[in-house]
Amino acid sequence: MKKLSARRRHPLAALVVLLLALAATGGLYAAFAPADKAQADVAAQSLAIDEGKKLFAVGCSSCHGLNGQGSSDGPSLVGVGSAAVDFQVGTGRMPAQQPGAQVPRKKNIYTQAEIDQLAAYVASLGPGPVTPEPQQYTSTNPEDISKGGELFRTNCAQCHNFAGQGGALTKGKYAPSLEGVDAKHIYEAMQTGPQNMPSFPDTTMPEEQKKQIVAFVRHTTNDEPNPGGLTLGSLGPVTEGLFGWIFGLGALIAVAIWVAAHTTKAKKS
Questions:
Q1: CA–CA separation, 158 vs 136, rounded Å?
Q2: What span, in angstroms and rounded, lies between the C-alpha atoms of 221 and 164?
Q3: Do the domain assignments include residue 53?
Q4: What is the 3-state secondary structure (H, E, C) of the chain?
Q5: Is residue 174 part of a domain?
Q6: Domain holding 142: CATH number?
Q7: What are 67-115's pLDDT values in tens digits?
Q8: Which of 52, 136, 153, 207 has the fewest beta carbons closer than 10 A?
């Protein structure tokens, strides 16, 4: 008993026990883990990367370089992640139609399967934001709309307008309208910060807050009724005042001219 007690108090006893436990855990995992499924997933990912590389060589490499390293015509894609690819290609911004101050949204030319393959290849170049899952940008809590509104007015309204209708920036650039934009793409834009937009990683804006902003934007631009009639782009009192000045004053001038003309005719007769 004394010998056994002495061995237990040996300085290396704890290390030996830990190594034995790790070995046992590894053995059990190797015995019961679904190895076939893991291998299948690896094979599918490898195939997606290979197919994405082929698509990249045809549609993207002329600007971004054969290995995504960038060139004078396009930035490096190392580290932008799959979310950036899904956003840029899914909204039709890439491949770019022509150079300019800002690349506009247009109809995309790839299927979602091809976009996923491109995203897999670019993601393999370096770690970056990952394409979100539906539960990350889909909200079922009605309170998220009001909370998202507060966050949107604090972080986004300066450029996108308080109703998400967009607005002008400097040197021909602009914040695009968010009307009709897919919820996933709104989330990805916050993840990646495309073009003139700052990025909002989880360290700056947690996932839950991004989800709330998406809920607000979708409600405001797609679902919320407008009891006031013509929105005039929801650009605020300047636009409304200009509308009133041009059309209201124009109508008054037209009526004055009509009255003066008919008064003159009446005097002559």
A1: 25
A2: 7
A3: yes
A4: CHHHHHHHCCCCHHHHHHHHHHHHHHHHHHHHCCHHHHHHHHHHHHHHHHHHHHHHHHHCHHHHCCCCCCECCECCCCCCHHHHHHHHHHCCCCCCCCCCCCCCCCCCCCCHHHHHHHHHHHHHHCCCCCCCCHHHHCCCCCHHHHHHHHHHHHHCHHHHCCCCCCEECCCCCEECCCCCCCHHHHHHHHHHCCCCCCCCCCCCCCHHHHHHHHHHHHHHHHHCCCCCCCCHHHCCHHHHHHHHHHHHHHHHHHHHHHHHHHHHHHHHC
A5: yes
A6: 1.10.760.10
A7: 999 999 999 999 999 999 999 999 999 998 888 888 999 999 999 999 9
A8: 153
Give Cα 242 to chain centroid, integer Å. 34
Q: Which domain holds residue 79?
A: 41-125
- Domain total of the chain: 2
d(CA 42, CA 48): 10
Contacts of residue 128, defined as CB under 8 A and 6 or more positions apart, other chains included, come to: 79, 80, 81, 82, 83, 84
Q: Which of 90, 125, 160 marks a domain boundary?
A: 125
* 121 and 180 inside one domain: no
Bridge partners (DSSP) listed for residue 74: 71
Residues 71 and 139 in one domain: no
The two structure tokens encoding residue 269? 């007769």
Q: Is residue 189 over pLDDT 70?
A: yes
* Integer Cα distance of 149 and 213 in angstroms: 7
Q: Do residues 104 and 140 both lie within one domain? A: no
The tens digit of pLDDT for each residue in 4-33 reads 455 555 565 666 666 666 666 666 555 655
Q: Exposed/middle/buried for 188, CB within 10 Å: 0-12, 13-18, 19+?
A: buried
